[in-house]
Specification:
Blueprint lengths: L5 E4 L36 H15 L7 H4 L15 E7 L2 E5 L7 E3 L8 H13 L6 E2 L4 E2 L1 E8 L6 E7 L10 H4 L5 E6 L10 E7 L3 E5 L2 E5 L9 H14 L3 E5 L5 H6 L5 E6 L2 H14 L4 E5 L2 H7 L6 E4 L8 H10 L3 E4 L4 H14 L18
Parallel strand pairs: 1-17, 8-9, 13-14, 13-16, 14-15, 16-17
Antiparallel strand pairs: 2-3, 2-7, 3-4, 5-6, 7-8, 9-10, 11-12
Helix pairs in contact: 8-9, 9-10
């Protein structure tokens, strides 16, 4: 006979594939608005962006009766409308350094300053943009050339800046420019991606300076490496992690744990936490983060979520899920029934796939939803 189980949901908001009416005008802060594909809502006043997104959530989940008590009065929790984003991937193609045009794949807008990046990121980007001006860029249509991306990453609370150069081949073409870049950045890495896919990560050829930056959430310091995932809105993430930490207890399993950001934040309220992540680099960073912070009741395992769930059923009190945008695989959701945790905390970055996962979870039975919240991680965007 199974224990009484409670199903807890946490939710961070990103709307995809939606057409919205014009609501509540505002003067766009960015001179590239309307051409650049990065921000689509700058002509909507931020309070009205929140209204639109709240209405969308209510409509999306209208056919799930268990959520009605939460969605009927739901207001998406807002964040800083500008200067919040701590990662930006600037494409280098066709003689330009910037972001793709709205609605196209093969056109690039030269970007000198981005309104959703903070001031220091913009200062460093302007300097780096000038430094790489004469470097051969990469034609992603013909698949030839050298410099594919300049990836900017920032730690919001420490102010540290990382610059990653993503190149198509292992050569010394970028090396002479690294010392100049080091005047502005705390960490520099050169990353090789040789494939045809349009990606901004790959094999780290070498680091210049540290090869990582550090972010601080409360009293926890996180080391962020070039390829590792970290949330793009740090103040909003701290708020979400605090909610999760307030609910997690007992033996806790954190699936899709990344660099350990949630695991470490929640550990103080748990007997022990096991983080499971399939990316080697992220697991190494998570272990380093645990050691650096002196947190001894957390361990990190490099493994695929599904086989780990199958092999470790009935061993956890709390299950934390933070899957990628595609959501958790149906087989992972099915395995939750065997794992039988007392409570589930689900944080999603895609409301559509979360909705699909929630319907699958309802088929498991035995759980009830006791909390549902939405956070605006990406202001000015849908």
């Amino acid at each position: 006979m199974s224990r009484r189980r409670r199903h807890r949901k946490k939710y961070k908001n990103q709307i995809t594939d939606i057409s919205l009416p014009f609501v509540g005008s505002a003067v766009p802060k960015c001179p590239y608005f309307g051409v650049c594909g990065g921000c689509m809502f700058q002509n909507i006043a931020y309070e009205n962006q929140i209204t639109v997104k709240s209405d969308y959530i209510r409509a999306l989940f209208a056919d799930i009766p268990e959520l009605t008590p939460f969605t009927e009065s739901l207001t998406v929790k807002g964040s800083e409308p500008f200067g919040y984003r701590n990662r930006m991937d600037f494409v280098c193609a066709f003689g330009k350094r910037g972001l793709r045009e709205r609605g196209t794949f093969d056109c690039v807008v030269d970007i000198e300053k981005c309104a959703i990046m903070n001031d220091r990121m913009n200062d460093v980007w302007r300097a780096v943009r000038e430094i790489v001006r004469d470097v051969e860029d990469y034609d992603f249509l013909e698949h030839k050339g050298y410099l594919r991306y300049v990836v900017m990453r920032s730690a919001h609370f420490t102010g540290e800046i990382m610059v990653n150069f993503v190149v198509s081949r292992d050569s010394d073409e970028i090396r002479p420019l690294l010392e100049r870049t080091a005047q502005f950045a705390d960490s520099i890495s050169v990353i090789e991606h040789t494939g045809l896919a349009d990606l901004s990560f790959g094999k780290i050829l070498y680091d210049y300076k540290r090869g990582y930056i550090e972010e601080r959430f409360g009293d926890i310091t996180y080391r962020i490496t070039p390829n590792s995932f970290f949330q793009s809105n740090s103040p909003c993430s701290v708020e979400m992690y605090s909610r999760i930490a307030g609910e997690a207890r007992g033996k806790t399993l954190d699936l899709f744990s990344g660099v350990g950001s949630i695991s470490l934040f929640a550990a103080r309220g748990c007997d022990e936490v096991t983080g499971v992540e399939i990316v080697d680099e992220a697991v190494e960073s998570a272990r380093a983060n645990a050691e650096r912070n002196g947190i001894g009741n957390v361990k990190f395992i490099c493994a695929d979520a599904l086989p780990y769930m199958k092999e470790n059923a009935h061993t956890f009190d709390t299950l934390i899920l933070d899957p990628p945008r595609t959501g958790a695989h149906p087989k992972v959701i099915k395995a939750i029934g065997s794992c039988d945790p007392e409570r589930i905390i689900y944080m999603s970055c895609n409301p559509s796939t979360f909705r699909d996962n929630l319907k699958m979870m309802n088929e498991i039975g035995g759980y009830r939803i006791v909390s549902f919240e939405a956070y605006d991680m990406f202001p000015q965007t849908p």
